[in-house]
Amino acid sequence: MTDQPLAQRFAEAMGQLLGPDFPSDIGLAVSGGGDSMAMLYLAHNWTRDYGVRLWVVTIDHGLRPESASEAAMVAEECTALGWPHAALRWHWGRQGNVQDAARRARLSLIDQWRGDLKHVLFAHTEDDQAETVLMRLARGSGVDGLAGMRPSRHVALHPLGAPSLEASDYDGTLPPQVETSPGFSLLRPCLEFSRSDLRHYATALKGRWVEDPTNDDRHYDRVRIRQLLNLLGEEGVTPQGLAATAQRMARAQVGLKARLADAVTLVCRDAPLGQVLIDRDGFATLDTETQLRLLTQALCYVASSRYRPRASASEALLQRILSGGGGTLHGAEVLVDATEVRVVREYSAVKHLSSGRAELWDNQWAGTREEETGFKLKALGDLGWQQVQQGDGKRLPYRAALSSAALWEGEHLIACPALEYGPCDSLRRYVLGRCDTGFKAFCNSH
Fold first, then answer.
1. Domain of 314?
2. Are 277 and 174 within one domain?
3. Closest by CA position to 360, among listed 161, 179, 155, 95
4. Which residues pair with 340 in a beta bridge?
């Protein structure tokens, strides 16, 4: 703990995240809860010294009758403070996990709202960090999971450009929408602040906030973990201690990532974008932790997935690979022969997908030429394989080629970059929203 005033700690956190050259404009995601409202007041006071303009956004999830009035309360406070505010509306499709769907929707809508803004503040706290670590510990997470949330991360959801918000999608004022660049930096300046510190700050300023009743709803995993953490505090398991563990795990993560980078240089061979090719003998000589990291990174790279598969599933697949077998996991397929381990997109995950030139196929591939508006992006499949047999030689085994991205005109194959067939510059791959520059670069940045 520190005796520094919270405002000073906030200024130091902002300096570490953004300094020394601060942007002229910053976005804030404010729900109306105590944490985010305290962050709004902290940022408002901080701007007096740094001259930064704030733009505030609230997502009205529509999951509770009070959500619209809560967004209106945030708008009122922003008006009183002199900052523009917008409330974005979201409607849940009643499918899947509601909290996960809401989280994804929040990031997607903010990406559409932010316009020219390149930084958006979120009010995650030390308590949120502790809850995250405890939840991941319960799931058997390793170093990466227990490293918790990072103070900053890049969010890239719409590499072809975020769709524009319709007038019916929001109330309020949007930031400038002139030169939107793909992706933004999600910043967490309050990650080392306790929830009670933030509430005390907002109370001292006679600020307003609302209490979300779902914070006491035991249907949600995080609520049960939060209540458990209160009990564990009696035995010395505190949010401060868990957050400190996350910092130590993040430090260890840096070293393990460096070891992985060395291993990739040592054992990985050139492969088409979207595939990973590993020397089998070299892979066998790596320590088990590095083997697992290389494998899970390869799975995430091939499937363009931000989150790794469960450790138990990854460990089981690793044992099969070391025994000479392969398998499927996380939307990827691992093929093993006498000398190589190849990780490719699972064909069953993409064989029915089709998209136009201006759309992402498999959330990874897009066409690059305006004149290709009548063409489709699909997997190569058996039909494409047969057509390639009549043309250029093949670079890949049949099984590894099936899921490759290909450009089609009707039933006629135009291009398949993985096989160096046709005009390969007709397609571009994105991984996690960024232009793909290969597996090694992916490992260095994720």
1. 263-446
2. no
3. 161
4. 279
